[in-house]
């Protein structure tokens, strides 16, 4: 009985060994499978490189700085460093440099790394994200009058008005008219030009036109009473002519004031900034510090590249720029006409004053611009 049990146990061991040998040699033509053989990956999963730790911009990516993770195939972005196999995947990243800060757990893309140390990019500004493709941002001066009394805020729609002075110039000399005139005199002493000399000094071989100063520019008119020819000269320089017109239509305000240089720009103020006056004594215990309101003096708007060139030219030429505020969502366009003195007289029923035998004294020779009360006072202080 005991011998029978031993035989049965031996037969079971032989059977198990035979089955194991069959399974081993049935894989790979009888050769053992390699230890690093990779199990087949489901068709809906892909291997991607992920940051295993926070990687700072410009740093070299270490061996333990990245790892491989599986993600669904439909979540893979074209620029991700991904493969259907793990072999050699990390080698595409290790030893390269981060072109920007990469947080732990973020999938690494081709644009995030570089093998050129000088090819490093920052993450860019938040302001650039608000500029639509095909547009650009430009900054122009701002004050209380040109900035709609500081009512402007980021995202507002505005028009830009330009005002400038024009004069007549000589197209060849590119200098203001009138030109200075000279007198040509014949050897006999007879003037050859319409302008007469005060006297002629004739000496052997030399004929001199005697005059004091430069010959004034003028023209020959007929005197009204006796209709005698007279030479008329201006008593002042050429007066510039004022013109104003809408230069930019429906631009978007990117930011009012100066952008914060701090990376954490979320707490940047829109509009007036408040700071303590320079040299101010520290506030006593229980008292609030006295601060001065500093209003913005610059505004950045989003325009087309061609409009940016026009604005830059206007600023460099000294033209006055003013902003007008539009209603939200107002995308309408309406043509405007340049406004001059003639336009005002003809379109706004302005009467040209008659020449009267009486007038005001003292004489009004220039406009008296109104003085805004807040501009006449020192800078406001707040507690």
Give a short synopsis of this structure:
With 383 residues, the protein is α+β, with helices and mostly antiparallel strands. The chain has helices spanning 2-25, 126-129, 305-317, 341-347, 373-376; strands at 45-51, 66-72, 82-83, 97-98, 113-114, 136-141, 157-166, 199-203, 206-210, 219-222, 229-232, 241-256, 273-275, 291-294, 298-303, 320-325, 381-382. It has 5 helices and 17 strands.
Protein architecture, described:
The protein is of the alpha+beta class and 383 residues long. The chain is elongated, with a radius of gyration of 43 Å. The protein starts with a helix and ends with a strand. It folds into four domains: 1-33; 48-114, Alpha-Beta Complex (Type Iii Antifreeze Protein Isoform Hplc 12); 136-165 and 240-279 and 289-352, no CATH class; 168-238, no CATH class. It has helices spanning 2-25, 126-129, 305-317, 341-347, 373-376, and strands spanning 45-51, 66-72, 82-83, 97-98, 113-114, 136-141, 157-166, 199-203, 206-210, 219-222, 229-232, 241-256, 273-275, 291-294, 298-303, 320-325, 381-382. The chain contains five helices and 17 strands.
Low-confidence segments, given as residue ranges, are 32-37, 263-274
Q: What share of residues are in beta strands?
A: 15-25%
Please provide the count of β strands.
17
Number of helices: 5
Separation of termini? Answer: 109 Å
Q: What would you report as the Rg, rounded to the nearest angstrom? A: 43 Å
Order of helices and strands: HEEEEEHEEEEEEEEEEHEHHE
Strand order of the largest sheet: 6-15-12-7-16
Shape: elongated
Question: Helicity level, as a percent range?
Answer: 10-25%
What's the rounded overall pLDDT mean?
Answer: 78
State the secondary-structure class. Answer: alpha+beta
Domain count: the total is: 4
Largest sheet entry: 5 strands, antiparallel
